[in-house]
Amino acid sequence: MTQPFRSFVIFAEMRTGSNLLEATLNGVKRVTCFGEAFNPYMMGWPDKTELKGITMAERDADPHRLLAAIFDKPNHLPGFRYFHDHDPRVFDAIMEDRACAKIVLTRNPVDSYVSTALARATNQWKLNETETPIPAAARFDAEEFRQVTGEIEAFQLKVLHRLQVTGQAGFWLGYEDLRDAEVMTGLLHWLGRTDLERVEPANDQVPQNPRELAEKVENFDEMQAELARLDPFMLRKIPNFEPRKGPAVPSFLGAEAGKGLIFMPIKGGPSDSVARWLRAMGEVSADFNQNSLRQWKRQHVGHRSFTVLRHPLLRAWAAFDSLLRGRNAELRQILRDIHRVALPPDAELAAMEDSRKAELFAAFLDFLRRNLNAQTTLPCYPGWASQSEVLAGFARFGAPDMVLRESDLPRDLNWLAASAGIRAPADLPDPEPFPDFLNEQELRGAAKKAYLRDYVAFGFGGQP
């Protein structure tokens, strides 16, 4: 049985109607909303310097002290409003507290943005029925709008994800719901106040700017043109069902040359050539764990870390070539039996002609497309995982300083060495050869279908 809520938080943003929602809740006996308790610029409300006997300095030193004080109200339902830019140190505690009800309040982001701009221009943040709105028009700033809405969207997705992984449910409200008595009654019943027959929305606040957007925005045509460029339904989003990768720290190499170099290899790339280049300049450490790598970095002030991207078509070929030559007979058999890659018997693999290899490689690229989209039962092995996801895995420990490309290594490794204080870098070993048939149009197209994320993220062209 779910335990009753003992507190609540309102996840909202500026100009979403959170003041009105707070006023409605505060109009109910034994329910108190303590404003924007963790706003870094105020204590709950403007011009307040303390809350629950705790000063701003004390809150900033230990925000959990204020959180405990707010929630310590027996036979009462206390809460507060929390925006995306409020103190992040209490976020985890809020989300992990299952007795804390999560109310999520949203509004059309364009309306919110324009309303915020008008409030800043007039310094009129709330309006009651006896006050006169100050006439004004705002100017739409496309860059600011994209930044603000991007930050808010990321925060809302973070809240949603945490609710999902913890098995909790939030109460979702739109701006238009706040003056609906039935919705407000439903909210209080969900919070556990089933003793209330009807909850009327607060009536001491009125809409400030009930005008068309065209009247409230100076550059309305410019705003329309900018919004037309956006993709709210993410029609151009590249689907990503690839499993998350870890940072793969044990594969890193630490070279002592100069101030130190950390090579973060992407499996299937030119790792052997780069490792030989590093060893030609001196001692190289390996078999790191996260703790030993941190110690190495502390001991090598001024070090540089880097990784090397390989063209997706060449990397897919490296995976396929390894499959043909490696000790992975079981994997080859699964590809034959289930995944439509008609490899000949193992004894015949070495004698295959290039035309047959090209045909089978095309089938393997189609398998990779399905595998990276979670359409096969086989795991996504590191040797053919997308480089986008491998880099994301690195970033979970520490992103590389430099992301180089295999085709530019003769030039870029010299620059990298100079940045690490290496005056006479070794010569890069000759690149490994690749079959000429990889330039066939069909194979280039199949590789792009399999690795579209990498082609878009890193600007790879069709020909390696």
Please describe what this structure looks like:
- This protein is an alpha/beta fold and 464 residues long.
- The chain contains 18 helices and twelve strands.
- The chain has helices at residues 18-26, 56-61, 63-71, 91-96, 109-122, 142-165, 181-190, 213-216, 220-229, 271-279, 290-299, 312-325, 329-337, 354-372, 387-395, 409-419, 441-450, 452-458, and strands at residues 7-11, 31-33, 50-51, 54-55, 77-82, 100-106, 171-174, 253-255, 261-263, 284-285, 304-309, 402-405.
- It has a five-stranded parallel β-sheet with strand order 2-5-1-6-7, with helices on one face. Strands 10-8-9-11-12 form a five-stranded mixed β-sheet, with helices on one face. The protein has a two-stranded antiparallel ribbon with strand order 3-4.
- Helix 14 (354-372) packs parallel to helix 17.
- The longest helix has 24 residues, at 142-165.
- The protein is elongated and about 85 Å long.
List the helices and strands and how they pair.
Elements: E1 7-11, H1 18-26, E2 31-33, E3 50-51, E4 54-55, H2 56-61, H3 63-71, E5 77-82, H4 91-96, E6 100-106, H5 109-122, H6 142-165, E7 171-174, H7 181-190, H8 213-216, H9 220-229, E8 253-255, E9 261-263, H10 271-279, E10 284-285, H11 290-299, E11 304-309, H12 312-325, H13 329-337, H14 354-372, H15 387-395, E12 402-405, H16 409-419, H17 441-450, H18 452-458
Parallel strand pairs: 1-5, 1-6, 2-5, 6-7, 9-11, 11-12
Antiparallel strand pairs: 3-4, 8-9, 8-10
